[in-house]
Specification:
With 438 residues, this protein is an alpha/beta fold. Helices cover 42% and strands 14% of the residues. It has 16 helices and 15 strands. The protein has a 7-stranded mixed beta sheet with strand order 2-8-7-6-5-3-4, with helices on both faces. It has a 4-stranded antiparallel beta sheet with strand order 9-12-15-14, covered by helices on one side. Strands 1-13 form a two-stranded parallel ribbon. Helix 4 packs parallel to helix 12 and helix 7 runs parallel beside helix 8.
Length: 438
């Protein structure tokens, strides 16, 4: 009699709220819907939820950025439009940051500020999908960030996707070629480290992706939202190896999306920078030239796409990001030290879940255990994603299903950003009850 089990939150409360919101299949519930059910159940039951569904920074914004932005505002910068190409000092510091932490040379002109990487991907999708009429489809190496597929839905652009779970290492090349050989792929998208699985592409895998990008003439969109957050190695020393791994070492066909949101906890100001390889920035595509008065790829991106979207990026936030990137490159601000708490939280949370019978779904990077970081993935015995997500709600734990990220595995994405110290004991106690009941 499953419904007779005692749970920290009455099942009737959760089931009623899910029904009220019209969620028919909980495995496909969005992040916002899961968050809403959790908030309402917490209020109605009086039981504190352990919230693991939202990927929002749980740390204070970098002070060096706040100080620079306040100073810029006080100087009167808010009255003037920013240059569509971006604040020159930010472009300079972005170029320097890429050299310091990736060991790649990109000219300042090809580093373009955007209103967060979300806008960077939107404008990149527009530009890439219009560059060659024969190449009208985006390929996702999943699992990934669900909103990027929504962006393509909004644009009316086609996409293909595969779950990389069974295609790591030597299996990656033939899998990618099975798509690229059709000749319709304009760009390949992935995040590194990965949201939600926290897998990190190896140098050999990045080399494979880069070589195929050159061979098939496709553009790689490398989402570096969790920059240098593979905490298995220290990637925080400017101009010193080891560097943040990147496809930029293996092809000229790339766009790097660098966000201020996670590494600098600057999510609220919507600031990032899109760094386009020098060769791609100046490249002329016949279809882009015909549509946009002969402009090269990089200027279509900035003076057409970004200009049409928002006429530039928050002026004062550009001063903030410039200051943060400069301080990091100067070795005065170690952003990795600020955010490594996410890895420490993941380590503790994994131990609790695994002790109570859960398993890590994406558990390895080939021969290495996966890093502890902002996200990780859990499964439980033979439960489906939807069953597990709904069941955990009865225990005051909220997380999203992997199916919503393009994964074909059964399990959930857990985010570490909002975990507070007192909640480890809460989770341990609740998962003990969960284990007895299941």
């Amino acid at each position: 009699m499953k419904m007779m089990k005692e749970t920290p939150i009455k099942k009737e409360i959760v089931d009623k709220l899910i029904a009220q919101l019209g969620i028919q299949d909980f495995s496909k519930a969005t992040i916002r819907e899961v968050k809403q059910v959790a908030a309402m159940a917490e209020k109605e039951s009086g039981v504190e939820f352990i919230k693991m569904e939202m990927g929002i920074p749980g740390l204070p914004a970098a002070q060096v950025g706040v100080d620079a932005q306040v100073k810029a505002l006080q100087s009167g910068i808010a009255h003037s439009y920013p240059d569509i190409q971006g604040y020159p000092e930010l472009k300079k510091q972005a170029s320097r940051f890429v050299k310091a932490f990736i060991n790649v040379d990109i000219a300042p002109e090809a580093c373009v500020p955007v209103s967060g990487s979300m806008q960077g991907t939107f404008a990149s999708f527009l530009t890439c999908s219009q560059a060659d009429k024969q190449k009208d489809t985006v390929l996702f190496i999943d699992p990934g960030f669900p909103v990027q597929k929504m962006q393509l839905q909004v644009q009316g652009v086609k996409y293909e996707t595969f779950d990389v779970y069974d295609f790591r290492g030597d299996k990656l090349r033939p899998k990618l070629e099975s798509y690229l050989s059709k000749g319709n792929i304009c760009t390949i998208v992935y995040s590194n480290p990965n949201n939600p699985a926290w897998i990190c592409m190896t140098e050999e895998e990045l080399k494979t992706i880069g070589e195929l990008a050159t061979q098939y003439d496709v553009i790689i969109m490398e989402d570096l939202a969790y920059f240098a957050m593979d905490f298995r190695q220290d990637l925080s020393k400017p101009f010193e190896a080891p560097y943040q791994p990147s496809v930029a070492h293996y092809t000229d066909n790339y766009i790097l999306l660098i966000s201020g949101s996670k590494a600098f906890s600057y999510a609220g100001e919507r600031i990032g920078v899109t760094c386009i390889s020098d060769k791609l920035f100046h490249r002329h595509y016949a279809d882009l030239s015909a549509r946009y008065e002969g402009l090269p790829f990089g200027l279509v991106f900035s003076t057409r796409m970004l200009y049409a979207l928002s006429s530039g990026t928050s002026h004062s936030a550009q001063y903030a990001l410039a200051a943060m990137l400069k301080a990091a490159s100067d070795g005065e601000y170690n952003f990795r030290n600020e955010v490594k708490v996410y890895g420490e939280r993941a380590h503790k949370l994994k131990e609790i879940f695994q002790r109570h019978g859960f398993h890590i779904v994406y558990d390895r990077d080939l021969d290495k255990p996966i890093a502890d970081g902002f996200y990780f993935t859990i499964g439980y015995k033979q439960m489906t994603s939807g069953e597990l997500a709904k069941e955990l709600m009865y225990y005051g734990v909220s997380a999203i299903c992997l199916i919503t990220t393009g994964s074909h595995q059964e399990g959930l994405r857990v985010c570490t950003s909002f975990i507070e110290d007192h909640q480890y004991q809460q989770l341990d106690e609740r998962m003990s009850i969960f284990e007895k009941n299941n």
